[in-house]
Amino acid sequence: MPYLKQVILKSGKDQSLRRYHPWIFSGAIKKMIGNPKDGDIVKVFDNKGEFLAMGHYQVGSIAVRVLSFEDKEPDREFWYIKIAESFKYRQIIGLANSASTNVYRIVNAEGDGMPGLIADYYDGTLVVQFHSVGMYLIRDILFDIFSEIIGKKLLSIYDKSQKTLPYKAPVEPLDGWVFGKESIKPVKEYGNIFKIDCESGQKTGFYIDQRENRKLVQEYSIDRKVLNMFGYSGGFSVYALRGDANLVHTVDSSASAIKLAETNVELNFPGSSRHKAFTADAFKYLDESDNKYDLIILDPPAFAKHQNVLHQALQGYKRLNAKAINSIRPGGFLFTFSCSQVVSRENFRKSVFVAAANTGRSVRILHNLSQPADHPVSIYHPEGEYMKGLVLYVE
Questions:
Q1: 128-156, pLDDT tens digit by residue?
Q2: Which residues lie below 8 Å from residue 240, measured CB to CB, with a gap of 6+?
Q3: Contact 65, 381 (CB under 8 A)
Q4: pLDDT score, position 358
Q5: What is the CA radius of gyration of the chain?
Q6: pLDDT band at residue 305, thresholds of 50, 70 and 90?
Q7: Residue 3 has what pLDDT?
Q8: Class at the top of the CATH hierarchy for domain 76-187
Q9: Are 319 and 358 in contact (CB under 8 A)?
Q10: pLDDT mean over 72-88
Q11: pLDDT at 23 over 90
Q12: Is residue 269 a contact partner of residue 263, using CB atoms and an 8 Å limit?
């Protein structure tokens, strides 16, 4: 008997699937059989009836998120194998058993073949975010599998999906503890200690994806005056202090973020006089910075989450980077980032180029930065490389 929920593609719209891209856009669909609803499993066929893929259907521009290019039922064993392979990969790259780092990503959505699922490990606590209804509907199965695979090291799970599921999704998620201790103890990253706020903090509680870039900041910070703009929980600030910076200023518009940053600096450098934190608007602060910094870090929140605001976002990056380049001392360094998925690496680089040109200063690119190995990007899904970064030398 044929599978009841089917998606039939228009003629010629199957090429991206044959190249293993995991998204099917609504405009590529000729017809649907079985009236699939948000979160349903569907099988995808070309216009001649050839099976192509199987995935979660959802209402919206991205109509199907592919789970497999094989014709198999996504039962518990299917998910167990996927999560086990994902965890094994973290063991292979040395994160799951590291003595100096106990915070890392276990599942990175499309990068691990599980679109719609993010799972971050914080020394015994797993913080999970669902970005698709299909994944959310099988959450109990996934929680059970995580518990089985991670074993005794898993002490608690926190579901933080209230703001990550699609707008108007036919579910009503509430953030909360699935089981275990209702807190996360301070975690270690390259030996540095950080307090995590998974309940009210950004993302799953910490910007795990900046781990290797923070370490690079440490290498450039010796004897420098450092400004950590959009500092959030002070991650870059702690690494700059670890790198023997003379002075580190953390700036964020959120008073609660600044308080957390001060806590994290105190955990690592009790009573340090080298660090000060300020609750302030980034643009205004840079206008008044008076060229006193040798190294500036710009890690703003996503300026664009949708394509229709891309131009506005690029203008924002241009203005922000121009202010920073103007504010830095000769011979200084700028670490600048974009975490907007809709902003391509090329567009981000162009914005920074225009910013540099508008200042008239001589600027060199030293490094192109991205996300770390526990945030892998499928070679078939380049959109998964959401983080773009540049290290600039400003004469």
A1: 999 999 999 999 999 999 999 999 999 99
A2: 217, 218, 221, 224, 226, 228, 248, 295
A3: no
A4: 95
A5: 22
A6: low
A7: 62
A8: alpha beta
A9: no
A10: 96
A11: yes
A12: no
- Topology of the domain covering 6-68: 2.30.130
- For the chain, give every domain's residue range: 6-68, 76-187, 207-394
Give the residue-averaged pLDDT of 87-108: 97
Q: What CATH superfamily is the domain 207-394? A: Vaccinia Virus protein VP39 (3.40.50.150)
CA distances for 78 relative to 37, 73, 113, angstroms: 22, 8, 12
Query: Residue 306 pLDDT > 90, yes or no?
Result: no
